[in-house]
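Thread: "does anyone have the structure for this chain?"

Original post by V.I.:
We have the sequence but no experimental structure in hand. Need at least a predicted one for the grant figures.
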Amino acid sequence: MTPHLEQFARQLKIWAQDIIDHGRTPFRRVDCLPAIVTAEGVARPPLVLWINRQSMMAGGIILLPEKNLTAELQLGKNCADALGLSHFVTWETEQVRLWRSSNGAINEERCFPLPGADHPDFFRHLLRDLIDALKIPAVTGAIAQNNLSPHYFQNLFNIAEELALPALTDSFRSQRAEESEEVAFDVDQRALEANRLLLLQILTTLRFGLLSATPLPEDLGTFVAGVLQRAPEPFNTTLSYNWEGAPTTLPGDTAVCYHHLLLRLQQLRWATPAQRVQQSLRNLLSLWYPDHADDQAEGCEMSLYPCAPATGTNLRAILSDSPLLLACTAIARELAGLPQPTFFYKSLMSLTPENICRGSLMARLLSPIPISSSERSLFSARLRTSWPHRNFKILTDQPRWKWQLIHLIGICQPQQQVHIECPVALVEISADDPLWALLSEHFYLREVVRGEHSLHLSLLRSPLHTEPTLIKTAGGSGRELFLFTEPEQLQQQLCNALLLPDAEENKTASVGKASMQASKNVKQQIIDQLHAHGIPNFPDQYLYFLDQPDMVRYAITPPLRVISRLLGQFDMIDGNGQLLHGYGEELEQTLLICAHIGKTTIDLPTDRKQLEQLLERYRKDLDTLHQLLSDLSYRQMEKPQAARNLIRNIWKKLELPDIDWFKN
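Reply from O.Q.:
Generated one for you, tokens below.
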């Protein structure tokens, strides 16, 4: 569509919405250029009038033909079919026409002439007449539920998925705020996949007739999970995996949205006929995983972390940390009439030589997230099973894909073919790293192909290098290299042959730059919310909890620092050089905190137990405030590092005690 027509479409939308808001029509909403899945792909009609968008009850479609009216009529028919309508409108240069499609034919039903006037009021009045003329077709022109196309249901699924996602994303981000260490996955991507998995769960319960009653919205999540246990294999397992880092309860808005979808699908009797059900599921999966076929994976017997449902005829096992992908794989293979493989919902590090297939294997090892300190012992223990005679030094700043690769090549069987996709950063690993020694000593590197963002390695577990390695660069050209005999030679020759630029140019920008996403408005908004919650005023507000305490006043000039301690006695000096003497850890902590937050005159109880009460209450309030700050920050920021930077900056701006003091 030309910019001129797009501008005209947006103006029509403004007028149409005003007519709907102030008139008496069955319509409630107008969308400009919405994405509609049709039999010929995704289309974007200029205007769609909705009676109820969430229920996929459209009332009219307005097209703006440029020159080829025949193609535009076919587009109108496809869009109408995908929206459950039998009519559409073409707004042409000389006339506006209402068309009716029936039994494959398209017939003109009504015409509004355009006499050449170009005044905005004329177009607005004509649009009012057109909307009035669409009132009856909007009700009588709807396609009967038995004749609704698979694309209609796919658009219904897409709308439900779109409306349910925001609340679920917020819930996942809030859950992430409670994690003490960086999680090993993209939280927003996890929320997107969890949203789609919930949609598949609801469709599966309807497809196999598992619902004996309709649950309440607040019980939807647990109810669906319970009835899925009665689904046939493998759907009772692949659709029931629990997400790592998922919220404990389903958000209310998400539950209400899918409850509405469940009722709508029951009303439209989506579960019959079976051919329409199967086609709508195929369309849904192809929309989620478009053009992800992998030629190397087609003949593999085991696939590790695939990026799309594996449909190879030889597949015997699949491993993934995505329940959505496992569920989609089970559905895709069932629809294609293929046998189901063994499903592993676990980490690659949990594989052993006993449960890995002996045939060809394909693995995508691309996770750049560093190993956390709590995972180091787990990775070390797993590597002792794959390389029992080696001792690896695992650092927390190293990416997990490297150690996954080392573990995988350790559990492979002799003469086993392995295809691995890994980051280009592989060749940036120093030549003295144990990875290169393991590859040189135990594997024949048959081929290396440099893709746009990754490397594809073709390996054979055999120490005999009978042929040179074939290197293919991004342009597709290939050349043979000499046989690799030393680890240093392997690393250096790969780096040279792949025509990689300076390693420094390949490094991604520091994650600290993500903090720039925290605009001043977002930062101030969170601070305002914290003030509304209440910032603790220590120690003044906590003195009211004490029963007739004996008080003593301290006058200091921050900063305050301890210069000596002995048997509970301490000496301090303030900013003016004034010396303070005292006894007890409680008093020392209290004075240091008061100086840190800028207090100059302080009234404190003399009793040590009462001082401890003040500190304990203050710790609890600070912990609650910090949890609120974390929740608000993680909701606002897409990147976890940006959220952590925002938390740190706001906490510093509020001039509150160090987080370690009340967390530990």
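V.I.: this helps a lot. The first helix runs from residue 3 to 22.
O.Q.: and Residues 580 and 622 are 27 Å apart (CA to CA).
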